[in-house]
Amino acid sequence: DAKTTQPPSMDCAEGRAANLPCNHSTISGNEYVYWYRQIHSQGPQYIIHGLKNNETNEMASLIITEDRKSSTLILPHATLRDTAVYYCIVRVEAAGNKLTFGGGTRVLVKP
Amino acid sequence: DTEVTQTPKHLVMGMTNKKSLKCEQHMGHRAMYWYKQKAKKPPELMFVYSYEKLSINESVPSRFSPECPNSSLLNLHLHALQPEDSALYLCASSQDGTQPYGYTFGSGTRLTVV
After folding, report:
1. What value does the mean pLDDT take over residues A77-99?
2. Which of B49, B100, B105 lies closest to A93 in CB terms?
3. Are residues B33 and A36, on separate chains, in Cβ contact within 8 Å?
4. B103 vs A84 pLDDT, higher one
5. A86 touches chain B (CB under 8 A)
6. Is B97 left (phi over 0), alpha (psi -120 to 50) or beta?
7. What is the pLDDT of residue A96?
8. Half-sphere exposure of B60 (CA within 13 A, CB side)
9. Are B50 and B96 in contact (CB under 8 A)?
10. For residue A93, how far is the Cα from the chain centroid?
11. Which residues of A touch B39 (CB under 8 A)?
């Protein structure tokens, strides 16, 4: 699976949009981009995934650049409960394939 | 039911003890996983079961022994652990891997080896 690069930490203001970048310049054509987050002392939580097109669900939006070498996770209106470590992962879908976590971005939402 | 349930939530064991961690899901997922997470580090994959067969072992020491009795259950048997094995142990499940679905994680078992 391709490597990802994320900033180690970022702060954002409550109520504002949080834009979390991820670089995956070695991504291949059949690799999906996944985002997970882990709130303190809980298991990771799936947020969203995409292949080529931008995606939106009730939690977030995922913007993937046309060359697929980077993506941005957008939390439209950050709340204090969004404080967590956010992981960007790329992987090929295969039966029993492994999900490998990188360092992630520690996001602190401030009042 | 859209959850992965892990028991116990906390476990303290001595280095000579034998204990087991349990993971259960009823979402019809056919792939199940064990991860280990040390403080302030990302989760690290230990084992992958696909259709109840062990498909990936990430060179985990033999004092950790996984078992998948059926498609809904995953166990991790622990024996002769060391204090450095103290960590949060996470179980996850996913569809059979042929479609891009996310993983569902449990809340973990926090293990302390004394």
Report:
1. 85
2. B100
3. no
4. A84
5. no
6. left
7. 58
8. 22
9. yes
10. 17
11. none
Are residues B73 and B92 in contact, defined by beta-carbon separation less than 8 angstroms?
Answer: no
The pLDDT assigned to A94 comes to: 64
Phi, psi of A85 (to 5 degrees): -95, 130
Whether residue B80 lies within 8 A of chain A, CB to CB, comes out as no
Count of Cβ atoms closer than 10 Å to residue B107 Cβ: 16
> CB-based burial of residue B78 (10 Å sphere; 0-12 exposed, 13-18 middle, 19+ buried)?
buried
Let me know how long chain B is: 114
Stretch 21-40 of chain B: residues touching chain A, C-beta under 8 Å: 30-31, 33
DSSP string covering B37-53:
E-TTS--EEEEEEETTE
A93/B99 CB distance under 8 A: yes
Q: Does residue A80 sit in helix, strand or coil? A: helix
Contact: B43, A101; criterion CB under 8 Å: yes
Backbone angles phi and psi of B84, in degrees to 5: -70, -5
